[in-house]
Amino acid sequence: MLEATPLTDGWTLRHGRDALPAVVPGCVHTDLLAAGVIPDPFLGRNEADVAWVGRREWTYETQLRAAPSGHEQTDLVFDGLDTSAEILLDGRLLGRVRNMHRSYRFDVTGLSGRLSVRFASAYAEADAVRERLGERPAAYAEPFQYVRKMACSFGWDWGPTLVTAGIWRPVRLERWSTARIARVRPLVTVEQGAGVVELHIDVERSRVEAELTVEARVGGVRARARIDRTHGVVRLEVPDAALWWPRGYGEQPLYDVELTLLNGEGPLDSWRRRVGFRTVELDTSADAHGTGFTLVVNGERLFARGVNWIPDDVFPSRITRERYRERLRQAAGAGVDLVRIWGGGIYESEDFYDACDELGLMVWQDFPFACAAYPEEQPLRGEVEAEARENVVRLMPHPSLVLWNGNNENLWGFRDWGWEERLAGDSWGEGYYLGVLPRVVAELDPTRPYTAGSPWSGSWDRHPNDPDHGTHHSWEVWNREDYAEYRANVPRFMAEFGWQAPPAYATLRRALPGEELAAGSPGMLHHQRAEDGNGKLERGLARHFAVPAGDFDRWHYLMQVNQARAVATGIEHWRSHWPVCAGTVLWQLNDCWPVTSWSAIDGDGREKPLYHELRRLYADRLLTLQSRGGDLVVAAVNQAGEEWAGPLVLRRMSVDGGVIGRASTAFTAGARTVAEVRVPRELVPAGPKEFLVADADRLRALHFPAPDREIPYPIPEFEVAVEPGAVTVTARTLVRDLLLQADRLGVDTRADRGLVTLLPGERVTIGVSGWKTPDAAAARAALYCVEPAE
Fold first, then answer.
1. How far apart are CA 140 and CA 135, in angstroms?
2. How far apart are CA 426 and CA 608, in angstroms?
3. Which of 56, 267, 480, 659 has its CA 20 to 30 A from that of 444?
4. How many alpha carbons lie under 13 Å from residue 120 in its C-beta half-sphere?
5. Which candidate, 685, 587, 581, 592, places its Cα nearest to that of 639?
């Protein structure tokens, strides 16, 4: 039977004459950090002080001992090497590698000695490729498009420039005889109620004459098949298989598949995975509104409630199974049902997809191409196809994976960002997105849809980012316009949009030790990577509020409010237009370090107010007030599987708390539909002193017809009571967007809700965890709300 031994002990990191203990899996930065050679690059402006690390060569070394007798072959297997390296054993070259996204295997049968993995600087590799193939344009100056490496390690508009090197995924020795399983490609489908698993098996042999068979088991069903030379197929059918559903639509039953390679009755190797039975389609048919983009799972058409995912740490080897699960549980807790793995990152570890399988989170997987023109010549072309083939097969067992996507913004970039003229006919990646990748997916994984890019309108006959066709990215709003402009169109699928806010207060305090916090302080500016990011934040705020001058705490709070308001404006509008719009994918769920960004969860894992707002926006049932042809309507968005019906109460109110008008009516929203109820004209608020309240089934929608800076809010008055695990606030006046910043009470303190608006006499109880010394005065000091303009 094949034996696998992790090769994790005894590694050193060498540069010149110096040697340090090394952790494998890991990277150079984390080893240098552990040894005290470099400061934490996430703190202050230390990032600039460690830039030298990414420009040097580094060598990892350990002793490889001779394998014990009893096996015919020994392989040295690297699951991931970052990125350009040569592998030597006692000075003998075993091989050269140049792709972070692939695994590698070397025959070391009978060999022992000093194992060395020598990493070149990724900059040096990129420069050599650029010199050979020519310049290619990109959204950023760093040369990430010339190497098959996590692009955002070269920095992004939310990430630091920390160019890594190292053995970033596990390494092991595998000892085997006669034959081993080289690859298993599982096609998992549903046919007439039966779950079907068709396993395509490739084997590697050391004895060509041996007769080989495979035995497979799933759901109480067994089957055998013969291996013909190096390939075999075994098919299993599970009668009445329970279907895997996205969260909110049903359960997530998973079935263990076990495959054993046999020589006679003697086992040689085994393969085990979990699968889920479901069908997935992508409906891109034309209709009266353009070209759709609707995911269909088990025949059910879905509005995707999504978030974009970036690597959760700029050093991915630090992301543990537990950390993946914590972050993805947070996503599920916010009502998310789709996670898009963005193309400037990586193919994530099995731990990520396992958690998504269990949580019912659909995964949209980008191939790793983002915001640049990528050369298509060798050596890159061969690397791209090899990595695609490996990762498509590796990820196929996961029912959560529902879509392959060719790239992020490159088709759009070619058309709109001046690339076409600059390239003057040079290759730029189109051959990957419209040729290599769809061919690989069609050949290896015909059970899932593929789309060429995001955004993409489906054809060069249309603009790549046409909102009426396919996927759309909205960045004009954040960059230049008020977030009210989200309501200007109804895209078929909003795959990227977002609004920035700083991280939590405690996160900033940790990341900027000793600095007096201010919007424009050196540390704050260093941890703001968007072009003119603070300028866009303040211009966006000024459209709604007076920008606080010299009051950081107020600035910080209002930026959080504006982020939540902006995202709510978009999602409420787009959800109310289901089924024309079939999904929203927020940019972004998470951060890879402490930074001002578009995230809902900051770099220390703290939930911003936006996160809690997502829980409302992505709930199965959403009440929202929208404009339709000059009328104001209540849209009851019902994504639940049951009808939603009941009374709807409308109140026209003044900001001083008086009720000007009131009406009650009934509404009915069928399962997975949107119902609209027109607001009577006499209840439509007139001017900045009035607003509208809509209540139904303990849900509420508010409509203020004027920006906050024009509303004569009363001075907020409220009472605060504290008991173990809770803070209760009772309003005496209108209290708009009340927020308990729990991390100001303690670095480990969390609140279970974000922004809430209270009418006079209403109360809210906020659950608080991790607060060691509850105190009413401290709670009041940590409470913020909108105040009257000066």
1. 13
2. 44
3. 267
4. 16
5. 581
140 CA to centre of own chain: 21
Distance of CA 273 to the CA centre of its chain: 23
Tokens of 219: 């759901």
Q: What is the DSSP letter of 517?
A: P
How buried is residue 546: exposed, middle or buried, by Cβ count under 10 Å (0-12/13-18/19+)? middle
Residue 608, SS3? coil
Bridge-based pairing state of the strands 450-451 and 280-283: unpaired
Query: pTM of the prediction?
Result: 0.97
Q: Is there a contact between 532 and 547 (Cβ–Cβ < 8 Å)?
A: no
Alpha carbons 572 and 563: distance in angstroms, whole number = 14
Residue 696 near residue 636, CB atoms below 8 Å = yes
- What the block records as the tokens of 681 is 């004209």
Rounded distance between C-alpha atoms, residue 781 and residue 778, angstroms: 5
Q: Is the peptide bond before 588 cis (omega within 30 degrees of 0)?
A: yes
Contacts of 342 (CB under 8 A, 6+ apart): 308, 309, 310, 366, 370, 408, 588
- CA dist 720 and 742 (Å) reads 14
Q: How many CB atoms lie within 10 A of CB 210?
A: 15
What is the distance, to the nearest Å, from the Cα of residue 399 to the centroid of all Cα atoms in its chain? 17
Nearest to 701 by CA among 655, 610, 635, 761: 635
Query: CA nearest 185: which of 165, 199, 205?
Result: 199
Q: What are phi and psi of 46, to 5 degrees?
A: -65, -25
Report the C-alpha dihedral over residues 424, 430, 435, 440, rounded to 10 degrees: 140
Residue with tokens 């490739």, as numbered in its chain: 202
SS3 content of the chain, % helix, strand, coil (to 5): 25, 35, 40
Q: How many residues does the chain have?
A: 790
420 is catalytic: no
Residue type, 150: M
Write down the pLDDT at residue 68.
74
- CA–CA gap between residue 504 and residue 595 (Å, rounded): 10
Average pLDDT over the chain, rounded to whole?
A: 97
Query: Which residue carries 């084997």 as its tokens?
Result: 203
End-to-end CA distance of the chain: 77
Contact 350, 363 (CB under 8 A): no
Query: What is the per-residue pLDDT for 15?
Result: 82
Q: Do strands 221-226 and 212-218 pair parallel, antiparallel, or not at all (unpaired)?
A: antiparallel
Say which of 409, 430, 496, 572 is annotated catalytic.
Answer: 409
Q: What are the structure tokens assigned to 432, written together? A: 């990957």
pLDDT tens readout for residues 47-105: 999 999 999 999 999 999 887 778 999 999 999 999 999 999 999 999 999 999 999 99
Task: Report the run of H or E that residue 339 belongs to, with start and end.
Answer: strand 338-341
Residue 302 three-state SS = coil
Cite the beta strand spans of 578-734 per DSSP E. 583-586, 621-628, 631-638, 644-654, 659-669, 673-678, 690-696, 699-703, 718-723, 726-731
Count CB neighbours of 758 within 10 A.
21
**pLDDT per position as a tens digit, 234-270:** 999 999 999 999 999 999 999 999 999 999 889 999 9
**Other CB atoms closer than 10 Å to residue 780's CB: what's the count?**
15
Nearest to 313 by CA among 324, 305, 326, 303: 324
pLDDT digits (tens, 9 = 90+) for 768-784: 999 989 999 999 999 99
> Contact 9/58 with Cβ under 8 angstroms?
no
Nearest to 55 by CA among 125, 128, 121: 121
Contact 737, 561 (CB under 8 A): yes
In the sheet where 750-751 sits, what is the strand order?
718-723, 726-731, 763-769, 750-751
Rounded-to-integer distance, Cα 667 and Cα 649, Å: 10
Greatest pairwise CA separation for the chain in angstroms: 90
Q: Name the stretches of the chain with pLDDT < 70.
A: 790
Q: How far is CA 295 from the centre of its chain?
A: 18
Please list the alpha-helical segments (H only) found in 360-516.
Answer: 380-395, 410-416, 419-423, 430-431, 437-444, 476-480, 505-511
